[in-house]
């Protein structure tokens, strides 16, 4: 997947406020996820993943996503409301 984004939708102060708001919501989201996860190890992994994702989300004014396999385009680019990519090391990268 390849995401192409427009300009950032928020200035530095707005982005800090956005991320602070996400962190305030984190306990509620994690409580909901924990209700579906009986194993404590899975709950801890979910919490870590959600916190990393929230720390890197970037609001943009426009977003287009395409998909390639071995350098060949699969389908056409599509306008999307959000895109999140988790790498093999679970490094998160998100646009919304």
Backbone structural class: alpha+beta
Tell me the Rg in angstroms: 16 Å
- The number of helical elements comes to 2
Provide mean pLDDT, rounded.
75
Estimated helix fraction:
40-55%
Overall body shape: flat
The gist of it:
The protein has 96 residues and is an alpha+beta fold.
List keywords for this structure.
single chain; 96 residues; alpha+beta; 3-stranded antiparallel β-sheet; 3-stranded mixed β-sheet; 2 helices; 44% helix; flat
Architecture overview:
The protein is of the alpha+beta class and 96 residues long. The chain is built from 2 helices and 6 strands, in the order βααβββββ. It has helices at residues 12-36, 40-56, and strands spanning 2-5, 57-58, 63-69, 72-79, 83-86, 92-95. The longest helix has 25 residues, at 12-36. It is flat.
């Amino acid at each position: 997947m390849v995401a192409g984004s427009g300009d950032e939708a928020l200035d530095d102060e707005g982005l800090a406020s956005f991320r602070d708001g996400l962190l305030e919501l984190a306990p509620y989201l994690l409580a909901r996820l924990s209700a579906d996860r009986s194993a404590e190890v899975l709950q801890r992994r979910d919490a870590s993943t959600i916190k990393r994702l929230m720390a890197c989300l970037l609001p943009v004014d426009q977003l287009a996503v395409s998909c390639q396999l071995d350098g060949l385009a699969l389908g056409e680019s599509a306008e999307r409301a959000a895109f999140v990519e988790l790498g093999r090391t679970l490094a998160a990268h998100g646009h919304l």
